[in-house]
Amino acid sequence: MSASxxxxxxxxxxxRERWLTEERAERLRSTSARITLIVILxxxxxxxxxxxxxxxxxxxxxxxxxxxxxxxxxxxxSQGDVVWLAxxxxxxxxxxxxxxxxxxAIVAGFAAGTLMALSRWTGRGIMxxxxxxxxxxxxxxxxxxxxxxxxxxxxxxxxxxFLAFFPIAVTSARGIGDVSQDxxxxxxxYGASRTEVFFKLRLPSALPYIFTGLEVAxxxxxxxxxxxxxxxxxxxxxxxxxxxxxxYFSLQPESLFAAIGGACLLGGAMVGMVRIIQIVVLRGHxxxxxx
Amino acid sequence: MTTPDTSRxxxxxxxxTAIAFQGVRKEFGNGANATLAIExxxxxxxxxxxxxxxxxxGCGKSTLLRLAADxxxxxxxxxxxxSKTPRQARLDRDYGFIFQAPTLFDWRTVWKNVALPLxxxxxxxxxREKKEEEIERLLSMVGLDGFESHHPYQLSGGMQQRVxxxxxxxxxxxxxxxxxxxxxxxxxxxxRMNLELHRIWEExxxxxxxxxxxxxxxxxxxxxxxxxxxxxxRVQEIIPIDxxxxxxxxxEESTRYYELVTQVRESLGTAMAGGL
Lengths: 291, 276
Hints:
The complex is a heterodimer of chains A (about 290) and B (about 280).
Chain A: H1 2-56, H2 66-73, H3 83-118, H4 120-135, H5 138-149, H6 153-177, H7 181-189, H8 194-229, H9 238-247, H10 253-281, H11 286-290
Chain B: H1 6-13, E1 17-28, E2 35-46, E3 50-54, H2 61-68, E4 76-81, H3 86-91, E5 95-98, H4 110-120, H5 128-141, H6 157-169, E6 175-179, H7 187-204, E7 207-212, H8 215-221, E8 224-228, E9 235-240, H9 249-252, H10 255-275
Parallel strand pairs in B: 3-7, 3-8, 5-6, 6-7
Antiparallel strand pairs in B: 1-2, 1-4, 8-9
Helix pairs in contact in B: 4-5, 4-6, 5-6, 8-10
């Protein structure tokens, strides 16, 4: 090897360096492309908004100007609060509800998914419940749950968690079950225990799947929390703000658009948070490189 | 350079048997749907021997390998690995298994892939520094210095298979079981990998049981070529390869090499005719 390998190894080295430079250039290109894309999308959105208003000749009480919504955010409401701060306070509560629900869903969903993938009998026992959970129209029974469990944040977290559970359970089951026979044989040839197979093979190879489910679950948890705030009786939360704004729409139309914008931001922040964790955790995963 | 290695011949004909198949039979499925994959296979592989299994598709070459690895169990007969049951040999980490696909873990770097067996096996008397030294030595032996922190998907197929070879050697098994390890590689890479494998075999004192589809590959690498019949797989003929060591490109150009390739091809032809 030593004599014949010289040029070959050198060739591999330069190939490797070329690869590294290309990767860096590629990363730079994709970052600037992404920023350009975001700017274009925002411009399209604002342009579309104002065009729609102009084209339909909509009055303020149907569709206010975008700048009117922005002005409203910095005004003082009837309680003497700065509007965007008040919305922020409500968002915080909804965020806590969604995050609590999501956390519980992660633990429960991962446990259920693992059992479904690895244990034939327990897995089969759980499966109908997981499927059943998915088919329950939680949005429809949320009002009933609020009546039974009260209007506290725990009820809302429960509903948020219920929605987030399914995508996590399914992707965990899929990811943990989906390892090649060769990999399993390889681990067996090392005399690896079931625990070692789980932590060194199944779990790491399942992570890209699980994070896909987690992104969906994060968005669902916000939806769940907002829906849970809608029934009469809740005092706080972005869902309450949306409902109240809708009732006073003809007086203060900007309020509803501000609340909707806040809810969108919350959903985006939740998914973004999962994305960031994913990027950190999945360093080096192939799925990461490809996405 | 070109004189036959006498110690190797002694080893091949010596008393120590690394793998012994005795009247081995393997059926897959049960009842009416059962298929007989191999039947009454008798084969002894001596320590430090390099034996290739060759035969038509579905002749049970891989089955034999998996039986020795305790990845499946025989339906009849007995398999002994280092005079132990395959299960005991597996638990004692007597063999390293190399698959046709490199079977690397994508989320691990090259270095960590090679370190995997050491993480799982509690090898006594091997310090952390010793392990790191060993990984480094093997990576350079398979020609991958400088690629330690690469991920498998950043490497070519040939380089991936080299990582898998280093990973199989890192815990110093006495036996390597190789299931068409270079079958998915292009011919040029394959040729080079074959010569490297042969060099590594000479350096490491391992016994190699090698499954292949390629006649030239089998002849170039082996001390003996075992030709198997179509399903159910039986041993058709065992052809000793009396080519000089070390096996290099010069050996590949010798007349004897061509004679042996022809001999294996003819034997394989008979084996396939028998199965039709």
